[in-house]
User: Fold this.
Amino acid sequence: MAHAPDFRRRLALVLLLILALAVPPVLSALGQGFYVGFAARVLIMALAALSLDLVMGLGGMVSFGHAAFLGLGAYVVGIGSWHVFDGSPLPFGLAGSENALIVWPLAMLVSGLAALGIGAISLRTTGVHFIMITLAFAQMLFFLAGGLKTYGGDDGITLYSRSELAGLKLSDPTTFYYLCLGLLVTVLALLLRLSSSRFGMVLKGVRDNERRMRALGFPTYRYKLAAFVLSGMICGLAGALLANASEFASPALMSWQRSGELLVMVVLGGMGSLVGPVLGAVALMVLEESLAELTQHWQVILGPLLVLLALSARRGLWGWIKGRDGAP
Amino acid sequence: MRIVSSTLILAGFLAASTHAWAAPGEVKIGMLTTLSGPGSSLGIDVRDAFNLAVKNLGGSLGGLKATIIEVDDQQKPDVAKDAATRLIEKDKVDFATGIIFSNLMLATMPSFDRAQTYYISANASPSQLAGKQCTPYFFSAAYQNDNQHEAMGHYVQAKGFKNVYLMAPNYPAGKDGLNGFKRYYAGNVAGEVYTTVNQLDYAAELASLRAANPDAVYVFYPGGMGVNFVKQWEQAGLKGKIPLFGPGFTFSEDTLAAMGDAAVGTLNTAQWSPDLDNPQNKKFVADFEAAFGRLPSVYASQAYDAAMLIDSAIRKTGGKLDDKAALGKALMAADFKSVRGNFKFNKNHFPIQDFFLREVVKDSKGRYLNKKIAPIFQDRGDAYVGECSM
Amino acid sequence: MIAQLFIEQGLNGLQLGITLFLMAAGLTLVFGIMDVIHLSHGSFYMLGAYLTATLGARFDSYLLGLALAIPLVALIGMVVEWIAIRRLYERDHLDQVLATFGLIMFFNEAVRMIWGAQPIFLSPPASLAGTVELLPGIFYPQFRLAILGTGLAVAALLGLMIRRTRLGMRLRAGASDRAMAGALGVNIDGLFTIVFGLGTGLAALAGGMAGTVLSVQVGMGESILILTFVVVVIGGIGSIKGALVGAILVGLVDTLARTMLPVALRSTLPASQADSVAASLSSTSVYVLMILVLAWRPKGLYGART
Assistant:
């Protein structure tokens, strides 16, 4: 009996992977090559939503400021690219770089450090105050980025070329799509493993009842902080990819509306299931895009849809797909 | 299964939105402009005037049937950038136009440049594109950002003002603007304040201005920013106490109605005004008012000229849109009748034209508009052409 | 000269504070009594501004427009509560965020469809369009003083209502222990609807007044919403007094930072750079304030419960 839901889940994942792999050739066949770029964007946002589910779904920490990590990652890539274009050196005599093997890990490092700082302070609060403090930090970074006049301020940085990754031509939409897909699948697999590992179990325990976990002797603050930092790093990677996809980095990436969008994707997809938020991201972005083609007033349709969704499905899209049986 | 059905539904949505290549005998224009927010009055004027020009040409440009794809950039650089990519890669436009704000122009031009799509600006004309970053694919049918400000600086200096307070929004055109003013104004700058773009409440700045006690004030605030500033200027009791000057952008027909009597009597500078006495301008103003129920602004005049410029270039190349070099030469020739009268291009693809002083008046029909008062510059190019290596 | 600048900026800060108070008072009640994260509070602010503009133009009187817009928006608020918000009480905060996020989208687009994407410029009544000489040499626009006065009057009335009326008593009971209040016979459902209507009515008043100073445009509610949440958290969720103190603090800090930072930075940086650094730093000042307050008083200045 315990095998049936597991089998169904595995089958669903495999099917999704096959569908994802088929996207570029199918789109090209339909003459919609432009949408391969859009599809890559969807995967990147799915990665960001995934990172948020790590802290929200598994850790029970509702972060309203995750867009900050997205923006930080994008800015690291942007600033590296800006210095290459401008020729001027960075502080400490470093030079600009567009090498993905340098700037992408650097983006993750910077986001991770930011998450460490933000988390260290924010995790001393809970509930709605935690939400507000993460929001406050994201807003501060948003305004500070706007003040960086050298790097364009509110107008952002235009990237003149994408990152160089060991001979791969990232400016080719199909190559870029498969790279994003590969990264997403890898991170998803790692996080699914993490979820059922000891660390994941403790985290989920902390989410369900922190007092009990503390009584059992676990250093709950450290576990939460570790999850927050890991989440920040993954989101930073998403940011680096996003800067490549749009060839642009601006403070708008760190707006609270962006953080809100990520939250919506996670809840829409099914919080805590890790796969759910990926689907949530896909669903939200595809819905937005296709509704926008139908009418310029698409928001008047999507808004009530979101309301209905909030009022009805308790476990999001993934819960709906898997059916009523089976654990998340 | 549910996954299959949901994917099919989503795929159906996407497939429903197919866009074809432009068929031969057709030309596609990307109209990327600001249609919402405080800057929308400018974008709406640009869009309406461009559409009017195409309508007057029988729905075609240069003999080819014209399809205009209209996109709202919401005055956000990231939205504009994405929209530009979409217009280039998905809609495969032959020409693009419409951007109002220079920060968006600078963010998107690299995309147009890389795709070798000709961009004809109906407004945004930053110094960077006139000088160091000039490119063969950019043509400005408007002016160079500094020009109107230079003209006003010249006038204010000639009138003997010695202690002027300057204000502008903090973005490339704002900086270009005050630089242009200071290029010709030699007196003391009582204050140089850059406010946040689309800031609407100027109470704090007006208080500081009053404290600085200048003998004149020069402000560059297009669209909704200007409306709010001028209204609050009057409410703060400053109208009549200190003379207020601005470029034509601050006092243009798209916002004069909202400013009302507060703006009447102010002097400003531009390269066009509704009362210019040439046959194509008379027709343009009359047609615009008949079609839209309001007077055109300087932005509308620029967009109308942009359409006429594109029309003349396509006609010159015989409709061969693929021959980029020939198109470029044809655009450079500027062989059309501008509503401004004289119009020719400098080697950096920016116009050489006349600038004059205008005054805001209320006419017998109760409409607020600008009247040409006196000439200031004749055949003015721009200060950056030397930095351009074209 | 300095005194004049100081007084004028101080009044500007108070005026912003009063607008924030009107928004925060409604939000803190909804948050505190109903425990609902209501992201679409800003949408009612926007509706208030739009309806004031339209009705004011219709009857050629700003004041009449405002007076009609407030109860109209309150009514719309109560309808929204009855249809959607009511079902969110038992849900967790995330479902509330999702639902109210959807409501923001819906209202923004609906307003855009009805009124168009261009902003509307709202003028104060001609009787209040002049300036007042508060002290010799110190001028201040009449209308801003009127906004300040109105806000303070409403604050006083709210305080009176909370403290002296039956409704206020029930509100305080509901805020401190909802279950107990219900068990003691208070009609919680009806109370909630009234609270929601009260909150949205206050937001409409704020929007209708702010619309004359700013402009009436789609999405105007979003920028004030974030500041409102900050005020509510600083003041303490559920406390009207906290909302007042928090709002005035935020208004003053924000305005003073915006005026003093550029001056301070001009001495070291060129004008355009100084202004943009000053603008971004002063925007962060409010959030720094919130973090400092929470570090000192984790539940906000007057907060009683989580």
